[in-house]
Design a protein that fits this description.
The protein is α+β, with helices and mostly antiparallel strands and 100 residues long. The protein has three helices and four strands, in the order ββββααα. It has helices at 53-62, 65-71, 79-99; strands spanning 13-18, 24-29, 33-40, 45-52. It starts with 12 loop residues before the first strand and ends with a helix.
Length: 100
């Protein structure tokens, strides 16, 4: 299982651990990933995802998964989340068409 956030695309970064004597050794900075179940209000379904803690806070700030995905860039999303985003957009288009 890769260590990549499905919503933001955050990946491990590479850097150095610097000792007191200034010896540098390579290390990896891993994202804080959490296995969660996120709920889509438009589709009425829940989806399991591996998401960073920062992405969870952003979902809460933007008002849910639907509005987060609407503003998210397609390049950052995993294929699974991209499919969910397209289903939400399709459902919104159907609702707008029915209202008109």
């Amino acid at each position: 299982m890769s260590r990549v956030c499905e919503l933001t695309g955050k990946k491990p970064m590479v850097g150095n651990t610097v000792s007191h004597s200034n010896i540098k050794t390579k290390r990896r900075y891993l994202p804080n990933l959490v296995n969660v179940t996120v709920h889509s209000d438009a589709l009425g379904q829940s989806y399991s995802a591996r998401v960073s803690a920062a992405a969870l806070r952003t979902i809460d700030k933007r008002g849910g998964l639907d509005s987060f995905l609407a503003k998210a860039k397609d390049e950052e999303l995993s294929p699974k989340m991209l499919k969910i985003k397209k289903n939400i957009a399709k459902k919104a288009a159907e609702a707008a068409e029915a209202a008109a």
